[in-house]
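=== RUN LOG ===
request id: a7f3
mode: sequence -> structure
chains: 1
length: 147
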Amino acid sequence: MNTVNKQTITVDFDDTLYTKAFVEIARKRLSFFKTLINSGIFRVVVVTARKDNIHEIVEFCDNNDIRIDGIVHNAGNKLAILKELNTVAHFEDSDSITPLLAENGINVFYMGEYTSQNCKTTWKSSLVAQGIWHYYVLDNNTRGLDE
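=== RESULT ===
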């Protein structure tokens, strides 16, 4: 079956497909996404707000044997792009983008660990230790844990 006739699912990259914290969650999530994506049933597009370092997405997918059909970067709130792609399901970690998508008819699945205060604290500690917390502050993606 060629990708033109397949339904499209979309997935955010940072803290969704690629999880920087929560080692056990990341392992299980990667297994889930690999099974879903590599099933061949769907056309799979990564839709990310990232503006730079798109090569990291390609490298991650290559290194983890994840087959994707495309990457849309610098996607902002993603609504128009997801409607254009006619996605049947989108996976997202943003607690501000998720309600916007749902309210506009997108089937969106939110990464639930971000509702747990313990997970939020672990997530922030991991990002601080990796020296990348400031990128989340700049992107206003701190889930209320900003300093």
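=== NOTES ===
Strands lie at 8-11, 43-47, 70-72, 87-92, 108-110.
The chain has one domain: 3-115.
=== END ===
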